Amino acid sequence: MKSPILSTSMPGQMLTFESFTGGIAQTNGWLIQNAQRAIAIDAPEGFAHWLQTRQVTVEALLLTHQHFDHVLDAAAVAQQHACPIVAFSPYSRRLTLEELFGAATGTSMAVPPFEVTRTIGEGTVSEWLDAACEVIHVPGHSQDSIAFHFPSAGCLIGGDVLFRDGVGRTDLPDGDWERLIHSITAKLFRLPGSTTVHPGHGPSTTIDQERHFNPFLKP
Q1: For the chain, which has fewer Cβ within 10 Å, the N-terminal or C-terminal residue?
Q2: Structural domain count of the chain
Q3: For the chain, how far is it from start to end, CA to CA, in angstroms?
């Protein structure tokens, strides 16, 4: 399933944000493009095939975190596009939670192994799409959670940290409620209120909407 293309004007170019939703957890994967280049963020089940239907080659796959529902197609995307995978931490089956999920459901679910070509911490980079991207470490849902903020486009790809009227769960390994709330209030709520937040599940929202009305974040 895909959402409408969201276009954002930038000096001398335009970025488009298009989502695919797939897998058992209905996880969002994102394709971001300008006129010449494309990147992907997260790779839920079915995402690699969907990218083929878009007839586009991505130059990098970025991961908000490595929980299984966000990386089931990571290996396929990297192989098909000959692209690097960029994440906060090296690939780890502990981070993917596949063993925990398999034990809980009685299945033999497994994530096809992939290589994190490059680990990245907080900071601003400009190598993707000729646009500045601020990488923000936002632990709490997972210790390796990061968000990607494109300030010129006014958009944040936030993973499973902040949702419309919700926040990420903290009852999984490495989950921590206090760290999650700190990540949101100290790191995400400093962004402009008009910033569009594209989460890992569900519909998009804005920083102001969640700052003022999210029931989990009220004083």
Answers
A1: C
A2: 1
A3: 36
